[in-house]
Write a structure and sequence with these properties.
The protein is of the alpha/beta class. It folds into two domains: about 150 residues, Alpha/beta knot; about 60 residues, no CATH class. Helix content is about 45%, strand content about 10%. It contains ten helices and seven strands. Strands 3-2-1-6-4-7-5 form a seven-stranded parallel sheet. The longest helix has 17 residues. The protein is elongated, with a radius of gyration of 30 Å. The C terminus is likely disordered.
Length: about 240
């Protein structure tokens, strides 16, 4: 199984080819194909802007026509900022990425076709595609070539990414010992008692248990216990003691 090829039709600037290659590298794409590049090739600016993706630039294949570049492709999506009558279906980047993943699982060679910076794709090129991809934008429908490759690459990677939507960074800190936790509990409870927090008195035991359970759920490490002890000391200094409720 292989990731989609990125095919740039008549790219005009080496800088944009380099930016596209860098975006590809970030998101697991490696097959770069150029159709009749309008800039000198090989291109020093492309290599500079690739910034770590020089291997993709060096391995890029150049073709004279779209037919040659697409010869082995089974599923082709064309990016366009405008709806075209010759296409029956227009996909969002997210929907296109899902389709590409399905095709990959079936062992089909796939590609995403991008037009030139100045004019985009022509009707003949778009007519070769199975569907179009249009990137939703706020005001300006046209995006920089590197930006377009970046967005499609991101959706491709995301479509198979198992990263949870929200997570807490794990640390290597050692969990606090029970002895340190008990010392902290007793310190906190003494100060809360002095501040007449436990009210009414007959509910003190239940309140203490609930506070301990709440703190234990945080799974504090040694440093965090020391920090809390310091906070308790700071709050207790010169504290104002109110009258009983």
């Amino acid at each position: 199984m292989t990731a989609p090829a990125v095919i740039l039709s008549r790219p005009q600037m080496g800088e944009n080819i380099g930016s596209a290659a860098r975006a590809m590298k970030n998101f697991g794409l490696s097959d770069l194909r150029l159709i009749a590049p309008q800039c000198e090739w090989p291109n020093d600016r492309a290599m500079i802007l690739a910034s770590g993706a020089g291997d993709i630039i060096q391995a890029a294949r150049v073709y004279a026509t779209a037919a040659e570049a697409l010869a082995d492709i089974r599923i082709l999506f064309a990016t366009t900022a405008r709806a075209r009558d010759v296409l029956r279906e227009i996909l969002t980047p997210e929907a296109a990425a899902r389709r590409l993943r399905t095709a990959e699982s079936e062992g089909l060679a796939t590609a995403i076709l991008f037009g030139s910076e100045r004019a985009g794709l022509d009707n003949d090129e778009i007519s070769l595609a199975d569907a179009a991809i249009t990137i939703p934008t706020s005001k300006f429908s046209s995006l920089n070539l590197g930006q377009s490759v970046l967005l499609l690459g991101y959706e491709w990677l995301k479509s198979a990414d198992a990263t949870p939507a929200s997570r807490t960074r794990k640390t290597q800190a050692v969990p606090s010992s029970r002895a340190d936790l008990i010392d902290m509990f007793e310190h906190l409870e003494r100060e809360l008692d002095a501040a007449q927090f436990f009210y009414p008195p007959e509910k003190k035991e239940a309140m203490v248990r609930n506070i301990r359970a709440m703190i234990l759920r945080s799974k504090l490490n040694d440093q965090e216990v020391r920090t809390i002890r310091g906070m308790i000391v700071a709050l207790a200094k010169n504290k104002w003691r109110g009258s009983p409720r």
